[in-house]
Amino acid sequence: MNIHQYYPVDIVNGPGTRCTLFVAGCEHQCVGCYNKSTWRLNSGHPFTLQMEEQLIADLNDRRIPRQGLSLSGGDPLHPANVPDIFRLVKRVRRDCPGKDIWLWTGYRLAELSDEQRRVVDLLDVLVDGKFVRALKDPALLWRGSSNQIIHYLR
54, 92, 117, 152 — which has fewest CB within 10 A? Predict the structure, then answer.
């Protein structure tokens, strides 16, 4: 899996202070997307074991209490990303007790494959749906357009 950006301290993408990972790869390519540079799977740079170790350490660092992990992109549920995202989410669940996990995807909850559902089953919050420029609303919290739904799963 490739990533574009990792923010060890983020207060924008979900509640509280978080670690946020932006992955590469998106099939949706929504008109008006603010993050077009993440669409290609081979863009960005590889998410290495060293980066994963740093993310886990950051989530557990008590000097800056973090509420959890946010996964965005691109699309973390792009079929090519699912195996790595699943492994990462399982590890966060195991090694970072008490941290919540949020994920943004252009797919709708009802249309997910079995593999994508395995990831979602480990999440606390899923924000689903493509960005629709005609429904853009800057007043919305944690989503760009009013068709997107915040699913509180836990």
Answer: 152
